[in-house]
Structures are given as C-alpha cells and as structure tokens.
Amino acid sequence: MVRTTATAACTAALLAATSLAAEADPIKIGFVSTLSGPSAALGVHMRDGFQLAVKELGGKLGGQPTEVIVVDDELKPDVAVTKVKALLDRDHVDVVAGVVFSNVMMAIAKPIFESETFIVSGNAGPSPLAGAGCSPYFFAASYQNDQNHETMGAYAQAQGYKKVVLMTPNYQAGKDSMAGFKRHFKGEVLDEIFTPLGQLDFAAEIAKIVAAGPDAVFTFMPGGMGVNLVKQWSQAGLTGKLPFLSAFTVDETTLPATQDAALGLMSGAEWAPNLDTAENKAFVAAYEKEYGVVPSLYAAQGYDAAKLIDGALKATGGKVADKPAFRKALASAPFKSVRGAFSFSTNGYPKQNFYVVRAAKRADGKFATEIVSKVFDNAPDAYVAACPLK
Amino acid sequence: MSFTLLAVQILNGLQLGVILFLVAAGLTLVFGVMDFVNLAHGVQYMLGAYLTAVAVAATGHFGLGLAAGLVGSLALGFAFEVLLFRHLTRRDHLEQVLATFAVILIVTDLVRMIFGPAPLPLRLPELFTGSIRMMPGLAYPIWRLVVIGAGLAVAFLLWVLITRTRTGMLLRAGSTHPEMVSALGVDIDRVFLFVFAFGAMLAGFAGAMAGPILSIEPAMGDNVLILAFVVIVIGGIGAVRGALVASLIVGLVDTLGRAFATDLLRLVVDRSAAAQAGPAIASMAIYVFMAAVLIFKPTGLFTGERAWTRTR
C-alpha cells in the first residue's frame, strides 16, 4: 500500500515535471495551407498528411510536445502574408510549414526569411527560391515546380512522340509548366494553348487540339479545371486514343470526381500510393484508415514535411534557436521518406526519383495513381547551380 | 481552319449560350419584374446541380434524379423568397446586393461543410453517353446536343408562358403596373413568389444540365453569375427574349474568341506575340461587346414590347 502510494506520488511528480517542461518549451509549428475555395482539396490533403505524422509521433516532434497552428491562406497572397506575420510576431512559431501554391509562397517568403524562421514547404517549390534567390531558411519536402513537368517532357521524348500540343492556364505556373516540359522534349510543339485561369469548359480547346493532329497532348490543369478537362476529354471519345500527359491534373484529389473518365491517363509525379517502400505502405494504410480516402502526393509531402522536422529536432535535441545547427540538421534530411531515396541539394530542394504514373482502379474499387516507370533517378532541380549557398 | 472545326466551335458556343440563357432568364425576370438584384442566383444554379447529383446517386436513375433536383430547386426558391427576399423587395438595390451576397457566402460554405471541397461526380444518363463523329478523331458528345435542345425548348415554353397565357399576362402587367394589378384583386406578392421560385428552378435546371459536363463544386455558381449579368445587361434588363439572344451571342463570342483569336492574330503579328495576346483578347471579347452595347444602346438590345416582358 505504502509502495503503491509512493509510486503514484513519483508518477505524479514526473507528470508534473513533464507538463512543466511542456509549458516551458513546446515546439510551435505554423502550418499554412489552402483550405477554402476551389483548390481546397489539395490543402486538406497536405494538412491531413502532416497531422497524421504528428499524431503517429504521439503529438510530438523531435520528442517535444508540439502545437500545430493551422491557418488558411485562402489562396490569396495578401491574406497569407497577414496570417504569417501573426504566426511569426504573435505566436512566435519555431518553424513554418505547408503552403500549396507558389504565389502564396513567394508572398510569404520575405517576411519569413527576414525573421530568420525556417520554412519547410509541403508543396510549393517556385524556381525563384531555387536559383539565385535561394535561402538558408527554405527547405522543400516536395519538389521543384518544374520537375514533374520535365518528367513528362522526358517521357514524351522517350515514347518517340514527334508532335505535341501543350495546354495550361494563362498564369505564371502554366508558363513554367510549358518551359519545364520543353526542357527535355525535342520534338515539335504544334500549339501552345493558354486558357483563362478557372475556365471550366474545354470543348473549344479540345476541338482545336484534335484539329491540330498531335501525337500527344501535355497539360497542367490543377483542381477543378483538371476534373472538367478529364471528363470532357473522355466524353469527346479521346481517352485511350490520343495520349494525355499531365502533371498535377490527375491525382487522388481529382480522381474521386473524374472516376472512370481518368483511367489510363498519364502524369508525372515523385510519388504514388503504390510506391514500394515499407514507410509508404504504412503511410497509405494509416491515411486511408484515418481519413477514408486514398492519399495524394500532397498528403505524402505533408507527411514527409512533419517527419523531416521531427528528424531535425531529434538531431538538435529539440532546439531551433541555434540556426546553423538546425539548418545543418534539416539539410541532412534525417528521416525516412515515404518516397525512399531523398536528400537535399544545397538550395534546400530535394534530389529524388521521378516517375510516370497512371490513373487506375484498385481492387477495392477506389481510384489511385500507380507507377508505370521511373523517368529520373535521384534528380536535382535545374536551378541549383545558380544558388550561392554551400 | 476547316468548315467542320468552325461548325463544332459554333455548337460549343451555342451550348454555352443555352446554359447562360437558363440562368439569365430567371435572373432577368426577377430583376425586371420584381426590380430585385439577386446575386444569390448563382447559388441556385449550384444548388440545382448538387440536388440533382445527390438525387441521381440516391435513385440511380438520371430522370428521377433530375425531377427531384428540379422540385428541390423550386422548393428552395420558395423558401428563399419567403424567408428572406420578400422582405427586401421594397428596399433599395444596395441592401439587396448586400443581403444576397451574404447568401452566397453562407450557402457556399454550408455546401462545402456538408459535401466537402472536392467536386461531386454526376454521371451522364445511359441514353445520352454516346457521341457523334463530327470531324476526324473528334466525337461530339450527344449530351451537349441534348443541352442545346433542352435550352431551346425551355426558351419556347417561356415564350408561350409569357405571351400566350393568363399567368404571363399578369406577369407582364405586374412588371409595369403592380399597384394597378393589385387593385384589380390579384395578389401581386404571390405572382412574385412564383416568378422567383420559377427562376430558381430554371437556374437549378441549368446546373443539373451542366453538371455532367462541368464539375459540381461549391463555387461553380460564381463564374456563371458574372456571365449571366453580362447577358442581361446586353439583352436588356427584364427582357427574356433579350436574354435568349444575348446568351447565344455571348456564348458564341466567347467560344469563337477562345478558339480562333490566337490563330487570327498570327496572320498579323508573330507567333509568340499572338500566343500572348490571343488569350487576353479572347477573355476580354464579351466585355468589350457589352461596353459597345452600353454605348450604343444603353438599355440593352431588346426593350419595350418586343422584349416579352417590359423593362423598367
């Protein structure tokens, strides 16, 4: 009896000590994501992936009690800047993570870098932050934006397509997408079609593409635009006839809406649910159990972002204050990515494999992308040489 | 540019125009007859698509789902009118704009909370999944032809309803002389209630018809609403005939602009400049057209007797 009481007292004391420690030094993560508007599905996946990893780690990153403050950037750069400034000045977050869209990233990068806070991107990998404008405070747990488009360009070249038509929305990322595709594609580009951002009916463009008579079409239509394009492509009887190559268009965020219409369409990606690593199998199973849907690459990147921060914190003993030490820890990529091989170039962007993936229906009736072939092996981005960081 | 490509693009333009007409018809009736600015009309388009998608998924039959969607849209129209809009009909336009804008925000977010941000699938009815081969390699979906046909049929029915029936007579009289109509013993508020609910149902019908082509998502009404306002400004506020003609013009100008502006520009400037300017010019085309109409005919193309209903 006495013994039990003593043990209980000890436990209580220990608990008190830990909770005191927790109050003294919790890790605060400011998580920026797009959670409203037509593109919210991407942000929801990325956030859920991140939260899943934190949950699996017992609510801790690097063994430290962790508070994740999620904010919605509404896909508006000005809104994002206001909210990020609040994260930095009011909440004093240790690390910022997330960010789906590059225009948001470009807007919030400056205040974050100026406050000497680290940001771990869960998706956006804009080229201005990869080359001459790279920062010691930036790490991408995702990719450099051009790379998935480059993957499709290289694939089109390898398939021997001679003539292609490119179609993207008329904004910076669309133009970057075409540039990325053309970096490895040496054939003829018959036409470059720019559509207004947010356009929903592609009937006119589809007729134009068919009239041009290409061997294949490459497109980048994120979110609802991609859903519509894929459905209309199928309704025009082109699925399976004219090769449809894309990036960020056919993935697990759009497949629930397009379903059968997307079957067989090809995309460039650095990850797919069936990628064969032990970490990935566990992640996909846990994600499906937790949220009831198949994870997308945004979810995988969010998950990896949390694991990356966790690994770096473990290496520094939970300390972020020593900036060079924490940067060194992050740069060594001290975690097992669901993607397998994963390391950082000097600009904070990953070196990793890229694959061509195809939309398929799984045995359980759910839709997912699956890997067709590897296109790039352990590939760095195209801008790293221009980055002065060592 | 072959003739068949032009024909296909004209069909595409007509189909966009017909969808716009279905939305704009209700909007212009409510605006013209009740002098009510209803920004929430796009929400009714979105709700029609959602109701139909849910009903089709529940019944497994497109026809039944569509019927349920229409009844649901009509019921929602009644509910909106009774709960909110009838209290605003005699207020000024600014208050109507503010209140109906609030409805957009609230309903859009409610739909997002219930159905999630991801688009909802709506399968084509089996009967219309086929396509017609119009040019080499391109199949034209029958559904788009059905949409065109249905829209033109609705236009014809509206014409009969407004010009050939007693209800239409009351509607036309109520739009210009509401006090006189009341004095003759007609419950004008009841007429307005039915006009409003009917307009909501037309918008819902447009959403249901567009559902299999476009993606059904919470914000789908926003783009359509702007185009529908462009249509009623061009056609003349309150003019259903004007809405029909203006919808078809807007649909054609927008589609043909997107299809051919870049190619036409290439004839005069070099390739890269055309690729830059073409899309910009195409997306401006309908607004330039609207500006031109406002300069030369500020009340819209169709006004007065020829407009089916009179305009204010």
UniProtKB/TrEMBL annotation, chain A:
Cited Gene3D superfamilies: 3.40.50.2300
Keyword Transcription in record: no
An annotated GO BP: amino acid transport
Keyword Transport: yes
Alphabetical keyword list: Amino-acid transport, Signal, Transport
UniProt domain Leucine-binding protein: residue ranges: 26-360
Signal peptide: 1-21
Family: Belongs to the leucine-binding protein family.
Protein's UniProt name: ABC transporter substrate-binding protein
Automatic annotation (TrEMBL), chain B:
Keyword annotations: Amino-acid transport, Cell membrane, Membrane, Transmembrane, Transmembrane helix, Transport
Source superkingdom: Bacteria
Protein topology in the membrane: Multi-pass membrane protein
Pfam family, one: BPD_transp_2
Presence of keyword Transport: yes
Stretches that traverse the bilayer: 6-31, 43-60, 66-85, 97-115, 142-162, 191-214, 226-253, 274-296
One GO molecular-function entry: transmembrane transporter activity
GO annotation (BP), single: amino acid transport
Localization (cell): Cell membrane
One GO term describing the cellular component: plasma membrane
InterPro entries registered for this protein in UniProt: ABC_transp_permease, BCAA_transport_permease
Record bears the keyword Glycoprotein: no
Family: Belongs to the binding-protein-dependent transport system permease family. LivHM subfamily.
Annotated protein name in UniProt: Branched-chain amino acid ABC transporter permease
Organism name: Siculibacillus lacustris
